[in-house]
Amino acid sequence: MAGLGLLFIAGLIGMFAATGWEETTAQIARLTLWQGALLLMLSLANYLLRGVRWHLFARRLGLPTTLGADMRHFLGGFAMVVTPGRVGELVRMRWLKRETGWAYERTAPLALMDRASDLAAMAVILALSVAIAAGGMGGALPVAMLALLAAYAATHPRLLAAIVTRAYRITGRFPRLFARIRAAARSLRHFTRASTILPAIALGVAGWLAEGYAFHLLLGWMGAEIGLWKAIGIFVFATLAGGLTGAPGGVGGAEAAMIALLALDGVPMEVSVPATAIIRVTTLWFALGLGLAVFPFAERLSLRQKNALEIR
């Protein structure tokens, strides 16, 4: 994580030097403390809304956890947000196993539904952005459709189970592993009802809109008024593009996409570069800091509850 942070800082220094230190620092100096605090509050709103969605999924799955415990697991998992493909966030499954005794294959659908719901929510936002402010965002529509298809495939129990079965027949190896994955896929049936899917997508849309709105505010404060929906579309598209690269936290890909899209809209580099840096610090790196703050408590409490279960 420290190495990735240093690479991120090194990249920013290079971009700042290329665009001019004076112009860049002047743009950053325009922001006040309350404006920075508002950006962080909007990011926190995103994480809390998605934490409520995690709790919704946990209840539908039948986990005997409280809202506080689910929120602790969800936020603590952000300590691993900069792992490749964010697979480190599966630490939440370990905490659930300790506290409830549920095996990993029983709780794995939670992580799958969480990621699929984000894909679906971001696809909805991208589609709205293209429909309302299509200028320079025409390429976002195929990405939105791809995200929706991926979300559908990842949450369709029969389709996913069939894919797993086909993969096992091709390889002919690891029967126990494939059996567990197939069991996890079939348990997705708990989430296929509209009473679960629709609130989950709504919470995701509201959360990601909060961060997109923060990006819109930031650009306005820096003198680059490109419109609300275009700013939201650029932010969501860049975040999704960075995630699709598989890079830890989408670092590199998300920043490049954001700066490129802003440039296509006529935003000068001396604005797009610091705006990108600030929004990434107040979203991705803020999530990491939040996760690192919650992680020790989640780890300690999970061990305590594990010991309590063993005593029983």
TrEMBL record:
The protein's name: Uncharacterized protein (TIRG00374 family)
InterPro entries in the record: L-PG_synthase/AglD
Cellular localization per UniProt: Cell membrane
Keyword presence, Membrane: yes
Transmembrane segments: 33-49, 119-152, 197-219, 231-264, 276-298
Membrane topology recorded in Swiss-Prot or TrEMBL: Multi-pass membrane protein
Pfam family, one: LPG_synthase_TM
GO cellular component: plasma membrane
Keywords tagged on the record: Cell membrane, Membrane, Transmembrane, Transmembrane helix
PANTHER family attached to this UniProt entry: UPF0104 MEMBRANE PROTEIN MJ1595
Domain of life: Bacteria
Principal place of residence: membrane
